[in-house]
Design goal:
The chain is of the alpha/beta class. The protein has 3 domains: about 190 residues, 3-Layer(aba) Sandwich (Rossmann fold), CATH 3.40.50.880; about 200 residues, HUPs (Rossmann fold); about 100 residues, GMP Synthetase, Chain A, domain 3 (2-Layer Sandwich). It is about 30% helix and about 25% strand. It is built from 15 helices and 18 strands. A 9-stranded mixed sheet has the order 2-1-3-4-9-8-7-5-6, sandwiched between helices. A 5-stranded parallel sheet has the order 12-11-10-13-14, sandwiched between helices. Strands 15, 16, 17 and 18 form a 4-stranded mixed sheet that branches. Helix 11 links the parallel strand 13 and strand 14. The radius of gyration is 25 Å and the shape is globular.
């Protein structure tokens, strides 16, 4: 009996083309492997290491990559995988734990190292290898392992070593290759070239995965899923993800898509009005619903971040289903409108990874409202056309769809809105304070010409009250944190060193213009160990 049951959202949108399948053994870097391969215009999909052979073969793999992972091959809870994946007749590349699993499975010996290798290391090549074509004999790599392969399986020979352990091995006759380091991370400068050698020179993949091909295939898949008569309702936030998702689905089913934009009470300042204007420029049918009071009533007294996310996610569904019924009642006589059967959401790949442990044994970080925040039982069926994409890929898709840059270049904004930027209980007073603070941060970042250069920049209201002095009078007010980060896909992030003059200007405006704030701090935490949002 298989330990893996393919999730519905993977079955919905099959890509009928050659791909590189990445099997996830639990590494936090797994998604970066797929990303580096996609950068070569080759489609790559991440599946759990427990995926059955039929599930793997359905993606027409030109090659398979075995990811890293936190376990030892000898651990009782070591992630299981079907060893027949090595017999599919396509090239296989093992990375870190993937090397160890391959060595152990094929009869080699894996042992604990004399010392753990973590961080930068120098690797020296031994002889010729197609995997290291045009790579210098000595290269810098990123290591993260405790075990290593001491005895190689029959047919393998070493290709590279570090000062501490075997760094690469291969069996070219069977097209098996493996590296102990991580070529997918930026800390391995030539890692992309190594992956490129595997994808093109060894697997013979074709660089034919383009935004237009994704658009064409997604439109066709949505048409097949929805059928010729069914209707869909889309959860619009006004951000890049939901706007691109809605535009894609509208291209597939036309006016059988109705978009609902909900004011959940925790939007940015004047966002409810601004977003409606932007969305209608896309030619979408938009119904705007002010449900702020009911959301805030549900959030009253709630401080736990997960409860906030789930409350907002559940209430969204209730609102959507109510609006669907209203649309049917209003339009049935005149247009024959049928009650929607599908809910469209702009779920992205990082949302799925952080919210669900479905891609392998990687740990759930937090629930995203459009993934883990949904109720277990829903009348509406989910359509998530962007669920295997990263943010920059979504922007490229939107560009090819002809969407305006004003929408595509918006910084990411969390589905639960300001609720996860207000630490502690969400109240009307705190929302009003943070809306003003957020508006100042965004305005000043734009004025400095930094908005499109930064992944995210925003304010966070902390439940920390401190004493201050303003106009010779004592104050006792909230602390506001400023957060600005660089990122490629939201999975990792580095703090932005904002110009000192910009920070001072933001701080001065916050304490002078926002009643309720008398202290400002700057968050310099990267991800990991922190997350981008505070909750």
């Amino acid at each position: 009996m298989s330990l893996y049951s393919e999730p519905e959202y993977l079955r919905d949108y099959r890509v009928e083309q050659q791909s590189i399948v990445v099997l996830d053994f639990g590494s936090q870097y797994t998604q970066l492997i797929a990303r580096r391969i996609r950068e070569q215009s080759v489609f790559s999909v991440v599946l759990p290491c427990t995926a059955p052979l039929d599930g793997i073969k359905a993606y027409h793999p030109a090659g398979i990559v075995l990811s890293g992972g936190p376990c030892s091959v000898y651990d009782k809870d070591a992630p299981p995988a079907d060893k027949r994946v090595l017999d599919l007749g396509v090239p296989v590349l093992g990375i870190c734990y993937g090397l160890q699993w391959m060595a152990h499975t094929l009869g080699g010996k894996v042992v604990p190292g004399d010392k753990r290798e973590y961080g930068h290391a120098e690797v020296k090549l031994e002889g010729e290898s197609r995997l290291f074509k045009n790579i210098p004999a000595s290269l810098q790599v990123w290591m993260s392992h405790g075990d290593h392969a001491r005895e190689l399986p029959s047919g393998f020979h070493p290709v590279a070593r570090s000062s501490n352990a075997l760094a690469a091995m291969e069996d070219p006759a069977r097209r098996y290759y493996a590296v102990q380091f991580h070529p997918e991370v930026q800390h391995t400068p030539l890692g992309s070239e190594i992956l490129k050698n595997f994808v093109f020179d060894i697997c013979g993949a074709e660089p034919n995965w383009t935004p237009q091909r994704f658009i064409d295939e997604t439109v066709a898949n949505v048409q097949n899923t929805v059928g010729p008569q069914a209707h869909a309702i889309c959860a619009l936030s006004g951000g890049v993800d939901s706007s691109v998702a809605a535009t894609l689905v509208a291209r597939a089913i036309g006016n059988r898509l109705t978009c609902v934009f909900v004011n959940n009470g925790v939007l940015r300042k004047n966002e409810f009005e601004k977003v409606q204007e932007n969305l209608r420029t896309l030619g979408l049918t938009v119904v705007a619903v002010d449900a702020s009071r009911r959301f805030l009533a549900k959030l009253a007294g709630v401080s736990d971040p997960e409860r906030k996310r789930r409350i907002i996610g559940n209430e969204f569904i209730v609102v959507f289903e109510e609006e669907a019924a209203k649309i049917v009642t209003r339009d049935r006589r005149e247009t024959g409108y049928k009650e929607p059967e599908f809910l469209v959401q702009g779920t992205l790949y990082p949302d799925v990874i952080e919210s669900r442990s479905v891609r392998g044994p990687s740990q759930t970080i937090k629930s995203h409202h459009n993934v883990g925040g949904l109720p277990e039982k829903m009348r509406l069926k989910l359509i998530e056309p962007l669920k295997d994409l990263f943010k920059d890929e979504v922007r490229r898709i939107g560009h090819d769809l002809g969407m305006p840059e004003e929408i595509l270049q918006r910084q990411p904004f969390p589905g639960p809105g300001l609720a996860v930027r207000i630490l502690g209980e969400v109240t009307s007073e705190r929302i009003a304070i943070l809306q003003e603070a957020d508006d100042i941060v965004v305005t000043e970042i734009k004025a400095a010409g930094l908005y499109r250069k930064i992944w995210q920049s925003f304010a966070v209201l902390l439940p920390v009250m401190s004493v201050g002095v303003m106009g010779d009078q004592r104050t006792y007010a909230y602390t506001c944190a400023i957060r600005a980060v660089h990122s490629e896909d939201g999975m990792t992030a580095d703090v932005v060193e904002l110009p000192w003059e910009v920070i001072k200007r933001i701080s001065t405006r916050l304490v002078n213009e926002v009643r309720g704030i008398n202290r400002v701090v700057y968050d310099i935490t990267s991800k990991p160990p922190g997350t981008i949002e505070w909750e």
